[in-house]
């Protein structure tokens, strides 16, 4: 099938409305985005690309003022939205449209289930399935510039031009393998995760060195991380421009009492010191005054070395099982889920990670629980 890649530019509300009405009658459309995020917390949409099997359309988010037809299309359960490696695209849509494209079919996820390889890029997938080379020359373009160059528009169109053909080939393979329902479950989980509210109060758990802090330091870290998350969003600036993790950790560790003590901590930007220094000291003081009974517990340290052999045993077993069923081991279980097994065992009751349900439980979970128990009991 030959798909014309010369794109149609869409920059007025009426044209978008007519196209969305037409696309609402299709079984599937290909979707992609181009965006910028160098100086902001939130992504700024530069383009929304749609391929419908007949042509490629570049929707200009800077010109469109009424996105309601697109929102309606995104929420239409009868139209599958086909994207590739879509986590960042979903964030763009959440910010721009306050809506997510569902039902979703992520061709990167599908390719892994179909045996094409884990985390395969779009160009690699098109090359493997269609024998077509896609240039990569415009990946670092300024997508907010207007007008876009011919090279930019052609590049953007190519991102959706072949996607529905790839989708069709993957569908056929997955149906033959009996794995299409697994892919649908994964894609549904992606949408659910993207739609889930973000608990900013838990941001401190991602601080790499937080486990070294005593409880009072953890209390300060909680407040400092929450402040950084809230302010980065409110000011729409990257977290690290406000305060990087290392100086944030140092504030929680040293608990400075005054501005002079705060200034002695390396890595705090001058603007953050001048604009936010007083508030940072207030947060530290709150942690200092917190009663012992209200202090949080220490954070979990890295896994002890004695669990290393058990981890290797579990990973080797998973690799063997993955090879037997023809799936990448990374698709079956994540590193943090191995750690969950170890930590739950150390706490007194081995517990399967929440994600090891459905098809994962059938092909992995039941036996992995026994393998993990045997391997971890040897540590004792």
From TrEMBL:
Cofactor: a divalent metal cation
SUPFAM superfamilies, per the entry: HRDC-like, Ribonuclease H-like
Keyword ATP-binding on entry: no
E.C. designation(s): 3.1.13.5
CDD domains: RNaseD_exo
Pfam families to which the protein is assigned, alphabetical: DNA_pol_A_exo1, HRDC, RNAseD_HRDC_C
Reaction(s) the record says it catalyses: Exonucleolytic cleavage that removes extra residues from the 3'-terminus of tRNA to produce 5'-mononucleotides
GO-annotated biological processes: tRNA 3'-end processing
MF-aspect GO terms: 3'-5' exonuclease activity; nucleic acid binding; nucleotide binding; ribonuclease D activity
Compartment(s) of residence: Cytoplasm
Domain (HRDC): residue spans on this chain: 214-294
Superkingdom of this protein's organism: Bacteria
UniProt keyword terms in alphabetical order: Cytoplasm, Exonuclease, Hydrolase, Nuclease, tRNA processing
Record bears the keyword Cytoplasm: yes
GO cellular component, one term: cytoplasm
Function: Exonuclease involved in the 3' processing of various precursor tRNAs. Initiates hydrolysis at the 3'-terminus of an RNA molecule and releases 5'-mononucleotides.
Family membership: Belongs to the RNase D family.
HAMAP family linked to this entry: RNase_D (MF_01899)
Protein name: Ribonuclease D
Source species of the chain: Gilvimarinus xylanilyticus
